[in-house]
């Protein structure tokens, strides 16, 4: 199987690269090899490499910056996935794409399901929703994995931000009224590979995705707040700098892009179709072992 992986230098792309090698020939690219903001670049590489499976781990993820860079956010998060999907249809390939909890407005009581109507609050969320819609409209056999609060030991994320700030500050104020599931990139990458293997055992991947493809929520089990996430980070024995943490409201920490108060995604559909996922606390402990 020939696999095209985008976003190889991103935190998810790096986690996926090492795990995909056993599945076939992997071409992992970054923006210098395939510029997602350039439709011609996307189409050219798809036509030259002719992959059997495209895994789109690249995205414009600067949530606040997207409020000013709307055109770029939509080019990368909406137009590029649509183009990849359209080109995949032409060559008979399948597509795996990653989306976000930010497609929801956070107003629901309880966990969001795949059947709930999206209503993004931010440009970033709007661009990611448009990407989902473009993929679905193309008719490509696909999986869209919505995830949330992604972190790892590389790139820019909440875990690394907390560890960096703790080196210089004895006190930190952390938002405590936004709820979600911190999800380690290794959880997402491991699940992606396991899903591919499971489907291949049942037949040709393109055919299997034609039957069960669509949107699935792929996040760690259980939920917390950013404050709860921070508490768990600093409770780990590997963390030497342990600042005093203060819970605050979203209103006390204003940002350019609004965040959903409730980002909890139900994984019931994923678990029924595939397998159970680890809790966010189990995954964080495993991640912090590598510190």
Task: Summarize this structure briefly.
This protein has 291 residues and is of the alpha/beta class.
**Helical stretch count?**
10
Number of domains: 1
Biggest sheet: strand arrangement:
2-1-3-4-5-10
Oligomeric nature of the chains: single chain
Low-confidence stretches: none
Any idea what the CATH architecture is? 3-Layer(aba) Sandwich
Beta fraction: 15-25%
Task: Give structural notes.
With 291 residues, the protein is α/β, with parallel strands linked by helices. The protein has a single domain, classed as Rossmann fold, CATH 3.40.50.720. It is built from ten helices and twelve strands. It has helices at residues 11-20, 39-49, 70-91, 123-138, 158-166, 185-202, 205-212, 226-235, 268-273, 280-289, and strands at residues 2-6, 25-28, 53-56, 94-100, 142-147, 150-151, 171-175, 179-180, 183-184, 214-217, 224-225, 244-248. A six-stranded parallel beta sheet has the order 2-1-3-4-5-10, with helices on both faces. A two-stranded parallel sheet has the order 6-9. It has a two-stranded parallel ribbon with strand order 7-12. β1, α1 and β2 (25-28) form a beta-alpha-beta unit. The chain is globular. The model has no long low-confidence stretch (mean pLDDT 96).
């Amino acid at each position: 199987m020939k696999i095209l992986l985008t976003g190889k230098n991103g935190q998810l792309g790096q986690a996926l690269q090492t795990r995909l090698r056993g599945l076939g020939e992997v071409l992992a690219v970054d923006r210098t090899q395939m510029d997602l903001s350039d439709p011609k670049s996307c189409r050219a590489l798809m036509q030259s490499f002719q992959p059997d499976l495209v895994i789109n781990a690249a995205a414009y993820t600067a949530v606040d910056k997207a409020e000013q860079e709307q055109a770029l956010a939509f080019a990368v998060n909406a137009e590029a996935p649509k183009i990849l999907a359209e080109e995949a249809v032409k060559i008979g390939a399948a597509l795996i794409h990653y989306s976000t909890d930010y497609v929801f407005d956070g107003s629901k009581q309880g966990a969001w399901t795949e059947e709930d109507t999206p209503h993004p609050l931010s440009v970033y969320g709007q661009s990611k929703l448009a990407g989902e819609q473009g993929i679905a409209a193309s008719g490509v056999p696909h999986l869209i994995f919505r995830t949330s609060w992604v972190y790892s030991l590389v790139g820019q994320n909440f875990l690394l931000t907390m560890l960096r700030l703790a080196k210089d500050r004895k006190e930190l104020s952390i938002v405590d009224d936004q709820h979600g599931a911190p999800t380690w990139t290794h959880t997402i990458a491991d699940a992606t590979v396991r899903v591919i293997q499971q489907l291949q055992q049942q037949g040709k991947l393109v055919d299997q995705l034609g039957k069960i493809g669509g949107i699935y929520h792929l996040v760690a089990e259980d939920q917390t707040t950013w404050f709860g996430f921070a508490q768990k980070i600093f409770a780990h024995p590997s963390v030497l700098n342990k600042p005093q943490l203060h819970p605050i409201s979203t209103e006390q920490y204003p940002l350019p892009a609004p965040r959903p108060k409730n980002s909890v995604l139900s994984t019931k559909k994923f678990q029924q179709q595939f397998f159970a996922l680890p809790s966010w606390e189990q995954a964080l402990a495993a991640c912090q072992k590598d510190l």
